[in-house]
């Protein structure tokens, strides 16, 4: 399986090289600068901010709310980053209505609302499951077993 994944990765990298082969050096330098800027921005800006929010949020939000709020926060951050290029509709002019012809701010806020509406939904499902109102998962059954619930092992040969 590992060899297959390596082969697929090498094939995809080779395809990327083929796509870039005919580009001038100037374009390749721009691509490299953008890639480096993305890595630096992630490692020195986004990751520390996410870690700080995670540590601060862990102190404020306790119990079963932690997991859904964390996931919703991460989804919100991702949606914000994806919305930055199109939120102000750059390139849209009166003489060219086909450029970004959607209401991106409305779509953005609807997506944020859907993400955060899932937080109480997840919490209520998790709470119902813990009260055994929903079918019990295998993990919960195993958690409630004690040492007397384990059968003896057959003798080794």
Describe the structure.
- It is a single chain.
- By secondary structure, the protein is mostly helical.
- Helix content is 70%, strand content 0%.
- Among the domains are: 38 residues; 71 residues, no CATH class.
- Helix 3 runs antiparallel to helix 4.
Q: What percent strand?
A: under 5%
Percent of residues in helices comes to over 70%
Measured distance between first and last alpha carbons: 33 Å
**Structural class by helix and strand composition:** mainly alpha
Q: What is the overall pLDDT average?
A: 83
Give a quick account of the main beta sheet: strands, pairing sense, barrel closure.
none
Helical region count?
5
Q: Outline, from the CA principal axes?
A: extended
Number of beta strands: 0
Report the uncertain regions.
Answer: none
The arrangement of helices and strands along the chain is HHHHH
What is the multimeric organization of the chains shown?
A: single chain
- Give the radius of gyration: 25 Å
């Amino acid at each position: 399986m590992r060899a297959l994944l390596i082969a697929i990765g090498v094939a995809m990298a080779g395809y990327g090289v083929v796509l870039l082969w005919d580009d001038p050096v100037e374009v390749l330098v721009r691509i490299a600068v953008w890639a480096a800027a993305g890595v630096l921005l992630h490692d020195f800006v986004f990751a520390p901010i996410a870690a700080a929010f995670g540590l601060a949020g862990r102190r404020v939000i306790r119990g079963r709310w932690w997991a859904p709020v964390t996931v919703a926060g991460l989804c919100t951050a991702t949606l914000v980053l994806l919305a930055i290029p199109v939120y102000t509709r750059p390139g849209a002019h009166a003489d060219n209505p086909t450029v970004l012809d959607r209401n991106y701010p409305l779509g953005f806020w609807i997506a944020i609302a859907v993400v955060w509406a899932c937080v109480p939904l997840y919490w209520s499902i998790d709470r119902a499951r813990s009260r055994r109102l929903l079918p019990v998962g295998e993990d919960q059954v195993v958690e409630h077993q004690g040492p007397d619930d384990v059968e003896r092992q057959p003798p080794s040969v």
